[in-house]
């Protein structure tokens, strides 16, 4: 009976999504949170984007992580262990009737930041089998791939729910997503000088002017 209850508890616990606590990145002052899918809780990229946008940490709204430097990339890969996770990059594809191929247009970040840094796997983004039975949706979304390729690039383009069709059925390649919390930087507020300080300064200025007239 005890074994049965423990088994039931483990099953229930495994059914809930895994929400890690935010981890601080000292190189840019941002916090990152890894969310892991389960058999009973899985989001596609758009759903993960909406989910991240509804989260807050220390008064700051979250968003799918944007990776704009090597330092940030290394932090997510080595410290957060974000392999196999959705990131906040996306593309808009178009179909070329002349070539019969789907073409990438311009990769973007969900925050509107410049997409100037990249760490693609060799040959990626490749729009693998877009629109085919193997990949029903276009590969317009960014994810981290798996550790085997960490030294030669980490990024992979994938379709909306990171799925592919195999002989044994559907297979998902993304295991979760990364949420980023960027602090809101505000300029320092300088306290106004007290009235006595203004009076003192005015007195000095008046004395200096009187001295100039008598000199």
Automatic annotation (TrEMBL):
UniProt keyword list = Signal
Listed Gene3D superfamilies: Mannose-Binding Protein A, subunit A
* InterPro entries linked to this entry: C-type_lectin-like (IPR001304), C-type_lectin-like/link_sf (IPR016186), C-type_lectin/snaclec_domain (IPR050111), CTDL_fold (IPR016187)
Keyword Flavoprotein part of the UniProt annotation: no
Per its UniProt record, what SMART domains does this chain match?
CLECT
The signal sequence is 1-20
Q: Which residues form the C-type lectin domain?
A: 27-159
What protein is this chain from?
C-type lectin domain-containing protein
Species annotation: Methylomonas subterranea
């Amino acid at each position: 009976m005890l074994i049965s209850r423990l088994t039931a508890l483990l099953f229930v616990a495994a059914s809930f999504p895994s929400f890690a606590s935010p981890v601080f990145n000292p190189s840019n002052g941002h916090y990152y949170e890894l969310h892991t899918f389960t058999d009973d809780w899985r989001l596609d990229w758009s759903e993960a984007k909406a989910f991240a946008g509804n989260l807050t940490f220390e008064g700051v709204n979250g968003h799918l992580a944007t990776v704009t430097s090597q330092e940030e990339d290394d932090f997510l890969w080595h410290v957060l262990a974000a392999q196999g996770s959705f990131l906040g990059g996306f593309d808009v594809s178009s179909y070329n009737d002349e070539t019969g191929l789907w073409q990438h247009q311009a990769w973007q970040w969900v925050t509107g930041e410049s997409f100037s840094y990249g760490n693609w796997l060799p040959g990626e983004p490749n729009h693998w089998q877009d629109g085919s039975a193997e990949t029903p949706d276009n590969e317009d979304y960014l994810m981290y791939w798996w550790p085997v390729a960490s030294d030669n690039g980490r990024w992979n383009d994938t379709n909306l729910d990171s799925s592919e069709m195999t002989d044994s059925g559907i297979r998902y390649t993304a295991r979760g997503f990364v949420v980023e919390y960027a602090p809101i930087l505000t300029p320092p507020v300088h306290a106004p000088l007290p009235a006595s300080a203004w009076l003192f300064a005015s007195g000095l200025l008046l004395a200096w002017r009187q001295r100039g007239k008598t000199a």
